[in-house]
Amino acid sequence: MQIPMPSAIMSVKERAVSRMYRVAVCEDEKNLREDLCAQCAAILSELQVEHTVTPYSSAEELEAAFSAGAEFSLLCLDILMDGKTGMKLAQELRERDDRTSILFITGSTEFLKDGYSVRPIQYLLKPVSREDLEQAIKTDLRLYHQPRTVTFRVAGRTFVLPAEDILCAESRDHGSVLHTTHGEQFILCPLSQMQEYLPKDRFCRCHNSFIVNLFHIRRVSSRTICLTDGRDLSIGRRYDDRNGGKPCVL
User: Fold this and answer.
1) Which residues contact 193 (CB under 8 A, 6 or more apart)?
2) pTM of the shown model
3) For an engineered disulfide with 3, which of 80, 123, 140, 179 has Cβ 3.0 to 4.6 Å away?
């Protein structure tokens, strides 16, 4: 069973990946670990993606691999394991600004809210289906392992920005300000039109005045979204699903 995350509602075209795709499967149940490894390898082979898949039986074993210099494209992490949990390891990785993609494997939905702070690709409920695992891997390949830019053509001018650099868009002075990791860019384009330019699998309207990049969300409280640069954005009532509006990220 698949629990949809904001980043997962999309269709994916199968395209080549520019470098080796390295998967770590961290699961303390031997049979499930072996099954996940086999499924990951089969899916990536069918997608014609050069890959490695490495099994780990505990968070400590995977942590030791990181300490020894191992690098991975995707971590398939069991949330609850003996010793250090997968959630704890994921939180420590993000505290070190490690951006390795994380796919949580879990037998319970109780950790969904906690997971936003580590920005996982998805949660998959045990037993993991082949279809859900393939969709999660395709999502990661498309979002993080292929170059992606956003092109704006306004009033005879063209702006091209990497999608991952855009934190949020703000309505201002009959146009929009793009807040990026490198500063601000004003574009004479109303926020409603800006919403059409921005990829719907990455960006979501959370307020009449803001569009947020889902992959720059650090945490979500009852009325506020905190971004990775420390910026806080309000969640408008019409975009809060608890008030019957269109959900933003909750």
Assistant:
1) none
2) 0.56
3) 123
